[in-house]
Design a protein that fits this description.
about 15% strand, four-stranded antiparallel beta sheet, five-stranded mixed beta sheet, Helix Hairpins, Heat Shock Protein 90, 11 helices, about 450 residues, alpha+beta
Length: about 450
């Protein structure tokens, strides 16, 4: 039997459920409040609000004919005895505020007096220019005089109780329905955090209760699966790249050993000075190739080799001498001029092997892309504990794409500079060295060629 999929409600339905439920609660509370009030009226605990108005005429008559003493006036009236000019002869049960209302009414002021209830007045002539004033309002008095004097005013309290009950019901209803939304929101938050922390190997937990939020959660689950697949493919590509680079490094060792060994044998023969210099250049180049093999090994480890645990302190002049020898070896076979500009020497604390390889990569790139008859200039100097090594050539310069992307692993897309089998490793490694030292590799065009500047903050020697 086919399993039926439970249909989820939408946010619009949730809104109407909230609205109807809240209105039903408020209506139920109002009915309960009204029933309680009716029961209190029926029991005589409180009297109707019109009680004072309906009984005022009878009270006036009995007081006027002398059958009712003012001390026996019902408790839901306030009374006092005043003269015709407003002088108080007996305040009765009125306080100063209510006496003020009575005087204003006696003076003919038609404005309503009293808060929260308007006070009404009836006058009883007592003879001799004296007047008895009855003051009352349309509020619900307690049936007992003792309760009237001790308890808060009933009608206002009953209204406050009703409003408080309505507010409590609205709050409870809102919390209930908001809790439903909070549960779904918590699922979305958990899903977002799982994706942000790359916990992509397990499905996102839970199912949303409401359709719109459920659709969002489904989309996030699809995103998780897509990211998991993408990372899996990326990992496979990284593994393949590592294996390729490791195999390339391994395959290079044998021809390097042959080149180095034969160059050493050649150097032992009786050679002319020019031939001996050529043999020495072959040996230096073989040594550089061994460095490149080490470079390939570093790149075969996904993010490259870690920074060296210890720095070396070397004089800048010593470093520059080695860079200059390598630069001349690179430029001589190509018919290029080489200029070394290192005006002063200073102790430099750095990862020497990495820096040497990075500078040689910059020189190699410059020599590779500079046409015959051109020149390469190497400048080195220290300012403010920052070593700057800049290699400038008179080649075609960098394309805009190369300026934006050069230094990325295996980037070879610069069509303005011939590739000649170049794999894009040199600038990549130079940038890694800069990052290890906390510096940067800056590429630019000079108008007559290209410039690559390596800036390396130096540790205290």
């Amino acid at each position: 039997m086919e399993k039926r999929v439970k249909r989820r409600a939408g946010l619009t339905a949730l809104f109407w459920r909230y609205l109807l439920t809240t209105c039903a609660l408020l209506a139920a509370i109002a009915v309960l409040w009204w029933g309680t009030l009716t029961a209190l009226l029926a029991s005589g605990f409180v009297l109707p609000a019109y009680t004072a108005e309906r009984g005022a005429a009878e009270v006036l008559r009995t007081v006027a004919d002398g059958t009712l003493d003012t001390a026996d006036i019902p408790h839901y009236y306030r009374w006092a005895i005043l003269t015709e000019d407003g002088q108080v002869t007996d305040p009765g049960n009125m306080d100063a505020r209510h006496l003020g209302y009575a005087r204003s009414a006696l003076a003919g002021d038609s404005m309503p007096h009293g808060f929260p209830y308007t006070q009404y007045h009836r006058w009883i002539p007592l003879g001799g220019g004296a007047l008895c004033v009855l003051q009352y309002d349309y509020s619900m008095p307690y049936g007992s005089p003792a309760l009237q004097g001790r308890l808060p005013e009933f009608q206002t309290c009953a209204t406050v109780v009703l409003l408080a009950a309505w507010a409590a019901a609205a709050i409870l209803s809102t919390r209930h329905f908001a809790g439903m939304l909070r549960r779904d929101a918590a699922l979305l938050t958990a899903a977002t955090r799982a994706i942000a922390h790359r916990r992509l190997d397990e499905p996102l937990p839970g199912a949303a209760r409401f359709r719109e939020l459920g659709d969002t959660l489904v989309a996030m689950e699809e995103l998780r699966q897509s990211l998991a697949q993408s990372l899996s493919r990326q990992w496979a590509m990284e593994q393949q790249r590592s294996r390729t680079l490791a195999a390339l490094a391994h395959d290079l060792k044998t021809p390097l050993a042959v080149i180095g060994g034969n160059a050493e044998l050649l150097a032992e023969d009786d050679l002319t000075p020019a031939q001996r210099e050529s043999a020495a250049a072959i040996l230096r180049s073989a040594e550089r190739l061994r460095d490149y093999v080490g470079q390939l090994r570093d790149l075969s480890d996904l993010q490259g080799a870690p920074a060296r645990p210890e720095r070396e302190t070397v004089e800048l002049s010593q470093l520059a001498a080695g860079w200059g020898a390598a630069g001349r070896d690179l430029c001589a076979p190509r018919g290029l001029d080489f200029i070394l500009d290192c005006p002063a020497s200073q102790p430099c604390s750095l990862y020497r092997a990495d820096v040497d390889r990075a500078v040689l990569n910059l020189l190699d790139n410059a020599a590779r892309f500079t046409p015959a008859g051109g020149a390469i200039r190497l400048e080195a100097g220290v300012a403010g504990h920052v070593l700057t090594v800049a290699v400038t050539d008179t080649g075609p310069g960098f394309s805009p794409e190369a300026l934006a992307r050069a230094g990325k692993e295996l980037f070879t897309g610069d069509t303005s500079r011939p590739q000649d089998g170049h794999m894009g490793l040199g600038l990549c490694f130079a940038r890694q060295v800069a990052v290890r030292h906390g510096g940067e590799l800056a590429l630019s065009n000079t108008g007559t060629g290209a410039r690559a500047a390596l800036t390396l903050p130096l540790a205290e020697p």
